[in-house]
Amino acid sequence: MLAPDQWFGYAYRAAVRRHRLDFVGAKADLEHALALAPSESNVQSRYGNILAVFGDLPGAKRALRKAIELDSLNYAPWFNLSLYLMAERDYASARLALGRAYAIQPNAWFMAAALAQLDLIEGKADEALTKYKNSSGSELLRLQGIALAEHTLGDDKQSQAALDQLIALHAGNSAYQIATVYAWRGENDKAFEWLQRAYQGRNSDLDFIWNDPQLSGLRADPRYHGLLVQMKLTQ
How does DSSP classify residue 220? Predict the structure, then answer.
C-alpha cells in the first residue's frame, strides 16, 4: 500500500513498472509523484524520462531543464538531456550536456559509452571505435559499439565477429543491442526479429525505442509503428 502523500513511493513503483515495460502505469505514477513534489529534481528528471519513452522530446527536455534548475549538480538530468538532444541531432548541445554530466560523475562508464555513440552518429567512426575498444565498462556495450563502428568503417568481417561474440555471450540479455546492430547495418528483418525477442523477454532497454539513433533506419517500416502500438507507446 503506497502512502498517498509521499512522492517517492510512486516514483519507485514507476521504476518497477518501467522495468516491466508497463510504461502507461509508470507514466501515471510519475504524474502523481510530480503533483505531490513539483520542486523535487529527481521527480522532474524521472518525469522527463518517461515523456521521452513516449516520444515527447520537447516535454522531456522541459522537465529535465527544470530538474537542472532545481539541482544543477544532479548528473542524471544532464546525461539524459544529452541523449535526447542526440536523438534530435543537436550534436553540439548534446556534447555540452554530456560534458556537464561527465564533470559531475567522471567515473561512470556509461558516460564514455554515450560519448562514443555521439562520435559514431556524428560520423567520427574512427574515434568511436577507439573509445569502444578501450572501454573498461560494459562488455555488452563494448561489443555492440565495435560491431556498429566497424560496419561504418566498411569492415564487415570485424563487425560480424563482434556481433557473433555479442550473441554468443549475451543473447539472453542483449536482444535489444543485437537488434540495433542489425538495424544500423540495414538488415531490417533481423532487427525486428531481435526487437520482438527483446519484447518477449521484457528487456527494459526497449524504453529507448522512440529515440535511439541506431534504429533510425527502421522508422519508415510499418513494423516499427506496429511495435510501438504493441508496447502501448502510441495509438
Answer: T
For residue range 159-188, what is the model confidence (pLDDT) as tens digits?
999 999 999 999 999 999 999 999 999 999
Q: Say how far apart CA 188 and CA 186 lie, in whole Å.
A: 6
The CA–CA distances, whole Å, from 83 to 20, 23, 119, 190 equal: 22, 19, 13, 25
The helix/strand/coil state of 231 is: coil
Q: What's the pLDDT at 126?
A: 97
- Sorted by sequence, the CB contacts under 8 Å of residue 43 that are 6+ apart come out as 7, 11, 30, 33, 34, 37
pLDDT band at 138 (very low <50, low <70, confident <90, very high): confident
| Contact yes or no for 30/50 (Cβ under 8 A) | yes
Cβ atoms of 214 and 183 within 8 Å: the answer is yes
What SS3 state is found at 135?
A: coil
pLDDT single digits (tens) 112-121: 899 999 999 9
Phi, psi dihedrals of residue 8, rounded to the nearest 5°:
-70, -30
Question: What confidence tier does 235 reach under pLDDT thresholds 50, 70, 90?
Answer: confident
Residue 4 has pLDDT above 90, yes or no: no
> Length of the chain in residues, anyone?
235
**1: number of Cβ within 10 Å:** 4
Cβ atoms < 10 Å from Cβ of 125: 18
Q: Where are the alpha helices (DSSP H) in 20-155?
A: 23-36, 41-53, 57-70, 75-87, 91-104, 109-121, 125-133, 139-152
On whether the CB atoms of residues 153 and 184 are closer than 8 A, the answer is no
